[in-house]
Design a protein that fits this description.
With about 900 residues, this protein is an alpha/beta fold. About 45% of the residues lie in helices and about 15% in strands. The chain contains 29 helices and 31 strands. The chain is globular and about 95 Å long.
């Protein structure tokens, strides 16, 4: 945003617009001010930022206190040209990139001596920046592709290497593959400095510098730690950037293209990895500070304990997948990691409002201590450098530091700069220094958010103020909406989803971000000196941190929190066009408050989706439903109605989100019992989604605790939520409201089960005269044993059969013909790799006269009606 007026104290001109942002600091002289908080890199993340806007009322007596001049975009063209060039040139051969650079250089230099004076300088600047970017990107891309590491990776060879860590290790996110969960491992970015043949030792071999992604499986011991498991993972996570390791591993080509990775290095457990050299002194200091903050937050509530280190220093080790999903669904994921707004807040504490930094009336800690302007700028530069080291050089941190350095230089020299040129300069310098940032989604989101806050937010705020919206609300709403509008298309590419609650959630956390940041950094600084003081400060920071986590969980829990969107660049362009259309429509609607109120109410209803209204519009869920099979992909999750808002849940599916969404659509808030038929991941992985925001009285499981890791995860979830855990016993009968059931399997005197499937809890359920047989994942051996039990006579001619094991081919024909269900329901995933349901099973079910329905084609299913000779039963699809 350009400055308006002379900006001199006592001058006669209207006031300049002053902006603070994660991009850096302006040096204009007068209010109003706007402060924007921008996002961090998305690891597994990147969503639009929360924002905070402030504006003063302007100069007293001004007829037009918010007048604005034209925006200075002279540096925007060269910066964008360099950015685009870097993104395109990184993959091309070095000779081509040098050819492009040479051609642009020749033409650019020639333009400086010929052509129109009005246009030749801007065009020449663009061409020269393109040339510089092409050279930088070409050299960086060639560095990744050359050397022995990419060559060995193409042959999937095994090597002994010396590798230097370039970032903090992190845990991989657990993933369900079929009926098993992939073990949680450790990932880390590093640079191979020396590579040799396996067995030769990491200290021998050829010198090189190749960036790699280290993949450390759960059974690989950490340096100095014997054995694998949790202790080994903790040892790997304690390693600091700049640590050098000697290890043996297998190289493979990178799984994704276009990023700064020459190969994937899967670390072998033998010989055991060892430390070749300790981390540098600055990294050791940063590590102690980060460890002190973790210790200071140890006694906070779980959400604040996990979130606060992420906000302050980007330490996300404690962030659970459930909490991460909630922040992503509400576009608050930027608060889980350090961002440019953190630096803005710290610098504002030091120098006061940046627009007054050059005035005698300047405020902040520095003038209170009597520090001169140049000393203040130098101290702020040291603070910026320390911030980058402690918080790690993520894209948004680098961008914020670069922009802040440009503004600090202007402050020290007494020359004025506006933030739009500062932002463009930062982008240009960063892309030339590290061309790979041009392909970083976090960097894209960070720049887009800052640009929107500088260009769009003040104009939208003024429009709202002219319509009588209160100043604070107008500025906050305009800033949040501007950042969301700019970033949403890119976020849609990443998540294939558009959040409908992002703007209100960002507004609700606005006031909590600054105190949490300040108190969190105070705890970080106090930890090495006084841990009790650090804990007290962390306890104070825990209040705003808990509020932010509550907003995220509440927003994500709404049935209409987001809508699915094509996760592609055409989808992004479509969303951008729709956003522009809505912005143009909003200019007209804002003149009609009643229309605005009606549309806001409509949006609220879409997000909250009250059950009676949803049922009236969509017919789902059907009234008086008795049994529902949720569509959770390749897994099982079924629900037995036990009254309004109450149900017994049998299995939880592989992922928390689908089962949580299904239960919310069904209006379930109370669960007397969760039955987990066995411990395979496709039945228990979604348990956190069942427990999310609901009252659960007990969890019942089978007696065979296999696989052990999944059984342990269930025990851990039950202990965390203080829910008793029991074991099912054959012959057990229970009743909840109109619902009764009996446990038929496993029998205590049966042969030992041949794996977890044959240990599945089998239930015979009665509700409203209907008889339902739920077989879990029983396979033929257990099904045949079930037929030999005294209860086998009760299995004849049931109304509904939940087909075992997702309709696999492993079924006992005798059990299917004895059950002879009226309706057979199969839960399976679309295009699953197992061929479920099997054609032979479908044919056998239809031969008994059953109507077969399946979630991969029919979606979620709900059973209504009553049983008996005069009852009517109906199955409805979502």
């Amino acid at each position: 945003m350009a400055e308006s007026g002379a900006g001199r104290r006592g001058g006669a001109h209207p006031p300049a617009v002053r902006v603070e942002s994660g991009a850096g600091l302006t040096d204009t002289a007068h209010p109003p001010a706007v402060r924007a908080e921008t996002d961090s890199d998305w690891t597994d993340t990147a969503h639009p930022p929360a924002v905070r806007a402030k504006a003063a009322s302007g100069w007293k007596g001004d007829a037009h206190p918010r007048q604005q001049g034209p925006v200075d975009l002279r540096l925007a063209g060269p910066a964008l040209a360099a950015w685009a060039t870097a993104a395109l040139v990184l993959d091309v051969p070095l000779a081509w990139s040098l050819g492009v650079a040479g051609g642009c250089l020749v033409v650019g230099v020639a333009l400086l001596g010929v052509g129109s004076a009005r246009y030749r300088a801007p065009v020449a600047a663009v061409l020269l920046c393109v040339a510089a970017s092409a050279v930088s990107a070409g050299l960086h891309g060639a560095d990744v592709r050359r050397g022995p590491v990419p060559e060995v990776a193409r042959r999937f060879g095994t090597v002994a290497v010396e590798v230097e860590l370039t970032g903090d290790p992190w845990l991989s996110r657990p993933r369900v593959r079929g009926d098993h969960a992939a073990p949680v491992g450790v990932l880390a970015r590093g640079e191979v400095r020396r590579v040799g043949e396996a067995g030769a030792g990491g200290g021998e071999g050829a010198l090189t510098r190749s960036p790699v992604l280290l993949v450390v499986d759960a059974d690989v011991p950490a340096p100095g730690v014997h054995g694998g498991g949790p202790e080994a993972r903790a040892g790997w996570l304690r390693l600091l950037p700049s640590t050098r390791l000697r290890l043996t591993g297998g190289l493979a080509p990178p799984t994704t293209t276009g990023d700064r990775t020459a190969a994937v290095l899967r670390v072998r457990s033998w010989p055991a990895p060892e430390i070749a050299s300790a981390p540098t002194a600055p990294q050791r200091l940063a590590g102690r500070l980060r460890a002190g903050l973790r210790q200071a937050t140890e006694e906070l509530p779980p959400d604040a304990r996990a979130w606060l280190p992420g906000l302050v220093v980007g330490d996300t080790a404690r962030i659970t997948p459930e909490l991460d999903d909630a922040f992503k669904a509400t576009d608050l994921a930027h608060t889980l990691a350090v961002s440019g707004s953190n630096l803005t807040i710290l610098l504002a504490l030091l120098i006061g409002p940046p627009g007054m930094a050059g005035l005698a009336e300047r405020r902040g800690i520095a003038p209170a201590l009597g520090l001169s302007l140049r000393t203040t700028a130098l101290l702020a530069g040291v603070l910026t450098l320390a911030f980058v080291i402690v918080c790690r050089p993520d894209p948004s941190v680098l961008r914020a530091a670069a922009c802040g350095s440009v503004a600090l230089l202007a402050l020290a020299t007494g020359r004025r700069r506006s933030l739009v040129p500062a932002l463009a300069t930062a982008v240009l310098l960063l892309v030339l220094y590290d061309p790979w940032l041009a392909r970083s989604y976090g960097f894209v989101l960070s720049v887009l958010a800052t640009g929107a806050l500088l260009l769009l937010a003040p104009r939208w705020s003024e429009a709202l103020l002219r319509r009588g919206v209160p100043a604070r609300l107008a500025e906050g709403l305009a800033a949040a909406a501007a950042a969301q509008a700019a970033c949403a298309p890119v976020v849609a590419v990443l998540s294939a989803r558009v959040s409908l609650v992002a703007v209100p959630c960002n507004l609700l956390v606005e006031l909590a971000v600054a105190p949490a940041t300040v108190l969190g950094f105070a705890a970080l600084a106090a930890a090495p000196v006084s841990m009790p003081l650090a804990k007290a400060l962390a306890w104070c920071a825990g209040w705003p941190a808990g509020w932010i986590a509550t907003v995220a969980r509440t927003g994500a829990a709404q049935p209409g929190a987001g809508v699915d969107w094509p996760g592609s660049w055409p989808g992004a362009l479509l969303l951008a066009a729709l956003t522009v259309a809505l912005a143009l429509l909003g200019r007209r609607l804002i003149r009609h408050p009643w229309w605005c109120g009606a549309l806001a109410l409509l949006l609220l209803l879409v997000v909250v989706r009250p059950a009676p209204l949803t049922r009236a519009v969509t017919g789902w869920p059907p009234p008086d439903w008795r049994y529902a099979m949720c569509d959770v992909g390749q897994g099982d999750a079924t629900v037995l109605s036990a009254g309004p808002g109450t149900a017994v849940v049998v299995d939880a599916g592989p992922d928390p989100a689908p089962v949580d969404r299904c239960l919310r659509e069904l209006g379930i808030t109370r669960i007397p019992l969760v039955v987990l038929t066995h411990f395979h991941a496709d039945h228990v992985g979604g348990l956190p989604g069942v427990l999310r925001g609901r009252s659960v009285a007990a969890i019942e499981t089978t007696g065979l605790a296999e696989p052990p890791d999944q059984a342990e995860s269930v025990r851990r979830e039950a202990a965390t939520h203080h829910i008793p855990l029991t074991t099912a016993a054959a012959g057990e009968e229970r009743r909840v409201g109109p619902l009764t059931w009996r446990v038929l399997w496993p029998q205590p005197d049966a042969l030992p089960p041949d794996g977890p499937n044959d240990a599945s809890i089998t239930l015979l359920v009665h509700t409203a005269g209907l008889r339902l047989l739920l077989l879990g994942d029983l396979e033929p051996p257990a099904q045949q044993e079930l037929l030999r039990t005294p209860q086998s006579a009760d299995l004849s001619h049931v109304d509904v059969l939940k087909v075992a094991h997702h309709g696999s081919a492993y079924q006992d024909p005798g059990l299917l013909h004895l059950a002879a269900p009226r309706v057979a329901l199969i839960s399976c995933g679309t295009d699953n790799p197992y061929g479920h349901p099997a054609p032979t099973t479908l044919a056998a079910l239809r031969s008994t006269g059953a109507t077969v329905l399946r979630t991969d084609r029919d979606g979620a299913l709900a059973l209504t009606g009553t049983g008996g000779p005069h009852g009517g039963m109906k199955v409805m699809r979502d």
